[in-house]
Amino acid sequence: MFKGILIEKDESGYRANVKDIDDAQLPDGNVTVRVGFSTLNYKDGLAITGKGPVVRKFPMVPGIDLAGVVEESAHPDYKAGDAVVLNGWGVGEGHWGGLAQKARLNGDWLVPLPARFTPQQAMSIGTAGYTAMLCVLALERHGVKPGDGEIVVTGAAGGVGSVAIAVLSKLGYTVVAVTGRPDDADYLKQLGAVEILERSQFSAPGKPLSKERWAGAVDVVGSHTLANICASTRYRGVVTACGLAGGMDFPSTVAPFILRGVTLAGVDSVMCPRAERMIAWQRLGTDLDIDKLGAISRVVGLDEAIPLAHQLLAGSVRGRVVVDVNR
Known about the structure:
- By secondary structure, the protein is of the alpha/beta class.
- It folds into two domains: 2-113 and 291-324, Medium-chain alcohol dehydrogenases, catalytic domain (Quinone Oxidoreductase, Chain A, domain 1); 126-266, 3-Layer(aba) Sandwich (Rossmann fold), CATH 3.40.50.
- It has ten helices and 15 strands.
- The chain has helices at 42-49, 119-141, 159-170, 185-191, 200-203, 223-231, 255-259, 274-287, 293-296, 302-313; strands at 2-10, 13-21, 31-40, 65-73, 83-87, 102-105, 110-112, 150-153, 174-179, 193-198, 214-219, 233-241, 263-266, 297-301, 320-324.
- Strands 3, 4, 5, 6, 7, 14 and 15 form a seven-stranded mixed β-sheet that branches. The chain has a six-stranded parallel β-sheet with strand order 10-9-8-11-12-13, sandwiched between helices. Strands 1-2 form a two-stranded antiparallel sheet.
- Helix 1 crosses helix 10.
- It is globular.
- The two termini are 16 Å apart.
């Protein structure tokens, strides 16, 4: 038996509770992992609360992240005792995820735990931080350099935004943070932001083109915020889009793209090829100041994750929530 958050749906309704789960209930997979830490992401919040159609089969253990040690393996790349990390691949949606003390998975989804990080530190980064790194890599791939101008980061006090600011500032970029929580200004400046802007400046319908300002952007919000960021991006600037916290719509025009040559680069972390994941984690090992992880994250137990899921969707959780599944 092991403990985990189990989401169930039947005639009694939709519910998520911490339960004792029998090993025999674990899904198919060629690697069994003894989980040490998981996380609480926006998608996990939707799954636990039922406020989004995230979970595709029931019962389901949520948790799109995990860090742990291999207990059993029939996969050629892993053996018992190996430390591993998992992000995405539909776990917590269609396959049992990391918010439990055990997980059985496809070994192709795993990445060796980078030597520089402890399991807890890896989960302080988690899918949010790994996604932020993919956005930074996309900016670099499209030629955006530190001297080109300001980089704007929306949803700045969240997990993706926090890590993006920390990484970009260490690389020498000038970072401007957009947040709906002005009380977090000191926190964002501690991470490396040089200016804090109020979210309301971007969340209402705007003009097809605005005054040019941004050389690049990391956007987790979508909707009017993404449209307004694109409209104010400089000639041949690059906007990376990786989230929809403000909505799935994109009420924009083609003007930024055909008149200013702006690039809108989509960033997907769920099905990202393993080779790119390895690069992202390698770069996190060199480009993220580990000392900032303490400010970015906090650790909670399994019981605390369920009420925090509601707070996360309400936008009142700062940074990263690491879940110690054995606490």
